[in-house]
Design a protein that fits this description.
single chain, mainly alpha
Length: 182
């Protein structure tokens, strides 16, 4: 939530640092009301989310790459593999489980996002940046319709499970296809 508050001030049209930064580099034509323009608000929120979670994902990928056995990499080099072949045939297949996890985590997070749009725009302008989770919370606590909100929560959970099953089938299909080609 602190990140959302910080970026709210950063993109503020009144005293925001981003517009001041654009002014200082003589790009006044790009100055906008970043959080109240329906055409760009979701891009701004996506940028904030990307900034928030990119470090986490970089650490996961670094850990996956470091877990590859040095013996495997050395054996591929001895067999004559160049850098591209090492990447394509050794490193990518070795980290596919992490790719699968990060992809699922991003999809799940995108479907369940709450804090960034709630703090930065409250779902606005209008409903431009409203999410399913924001609408579920509003249904429960603004309209006091807890039954419908519970049903909506179960529906999003089922959507996430369905997306995971489809993604899992696609990713594992790609892995099997790659193994057959070798």
């Amino acid at each position: 939530m602190a990140i959302s508050y910080a970026f709210s001030y950063f993109f503020s049209p009144v005293n925001g640092a981003f517009n001041a930064l654009l002014t200082s580099v003589h790009l006044e034509g790009l100055i906008r009301n970043w959080l109240s323009d329906e055409s760009i608000v979701n891009f701004v929120l996506s940028f904030v989310s990307l900034w928030r979670f990119s470090g986490y994902h970089v650490i996961l990928f670094m850990a996956a790459l470091q877990s590859i056995s040095q013996d495997t990499l050395e054996a591929a080099k001895v067999d004559g593999a160049n850098t591209w072949q090492l990447f394509k045939y050794v490193q990518i297949p070795a980290i596919m489980l992490m790719v699968d996890f990060v992809l699922f985590d991003n999809i799940r997070g995108a479907l369940q996002v709450f804090d960034i749009p709630f703090v930065m725009t409250a779902g606005g302008p209008g409903y431009a940046s409203s999410t399913f989770t924001l609408y579920t919370i509003k249904t429960a606590f603004t309209f006091s319709n807890f039954g419908l909100a519970a049903t909506m929560a179960v529906a999003i959970m089922l959507m996430i499970v369905l997306i995971y099953l489809v993604q899992n089938k696609i990713i594992h299909g790609l892995i099997l296809k790659e193994r057959r080609q070798k």
